[in-house]
Design brief:
four-stranded mixed beta sheet; 45% helix; alpha/beta; TF_NusA_KH_1st; 13 helices; disordered C terminus; RNA-binding; RNA binding; 394 residues; 15 strands; elongated
Amino acid sequence: MSKEMLNALDTLEAEKGISKEIVIDALEAALVSAYKRHYGQSQNVEVEFNEKKGDIHVYAVKEVTEEVMDSQLEVSLKDAMEINPAYEIGDTIRFEVTPKDFGRIAAQTAKQVILQRVREAERSIIYNEYSAYEKDIMQGVVERQDNRYIYVNLGKIEAVLSKQDQMPNEHYKPHDRIKVYVSRVENTSKGPQVFVSRSHPDLLRRLFEQEIPEVYDGIVEIVSIAREAGDRAKVAVRSTDPNIDPVGTCVGPKGQRVQAIVNELKGENMDIVEWNEDPAVFIANSLNPAQVEDVIFDINNPKVCTVVVPDYQLSLAIGKRGQNARLAAKLTAHKIDIKSESDMEEFYANYDEAEVEELESVTTEIEDQEDTSDVEETTTVVTDEIQDVASEEE
């Protein structure tokens, strides 16, 4: 058994990456349980596994006492001193109690326990390995799918791709190679569970880092991303180097860089806009390709604004089913109301008329509320003063 056991440990360490120490600790714990089950529950025993020879030895551990109350746990000082005169009360002595047939019993009893410990160690290794890839991008192979998930093989583990994390314009088939974003890794009772996504905005961020060296190096920074997976996305970028154009860098010569990302996302349209510290300029850029005439912010809420565009650009600014305006709002974190120039002129005209009517109503109301006697008294005083002045002139 010794050689076979050592060979098995070496193979396990080489193929599964599980160290011998972990397996030996599990084996010794299993053998203690096996011995107690077959040879006495109350005994305090230790099991040693010789890593060089592969031999297994079982020792009963007993404490040296003046008077023995339990022979399975204690040994008298007199008997201990016969073994070694140096023993004192309170010391522990190990007696080898390895049964002749213990190897067979131990192998049968400890098999499931060892497998469980090995499985736990293997799960821990996989969890530690893949948790390092959390919030990162990996390439996998589509294995199969059911009503809930598509299962993607990442190498040592099968990740799950839920329906909300799939792109609506994609159809996944077995053996398809796809890039996925590792959204989270959980260590469950059934083992590590990896959740991946194709619709997450940060998938776009990682693809930009892969395809554009300036983004990876931090020279060009992605400030924000607004994405409707499979259809269209807007990416706001800025440059830490004034000599580098962030938009041109991301687009690349003849659009080659951004086209590689579009191809990976199966034709998802990409708008790359330049970030600006001035919210008005940033909002105007975010509505690209529409032309913006003016951006008016709400006095009471700076996160709300009205964008004025030429009449012929209104539908372009809003986009199909409001998509362009919706993505611009997500990208800039502002509530955007888009109006044409003619609508704004009409709005201002109505606003002025309403303001005049409001002032007139307020004036009328004030006049109605004044005390008539006070008005008459004031008029009398003024008349008397005029008469006095007239008399003096005469």
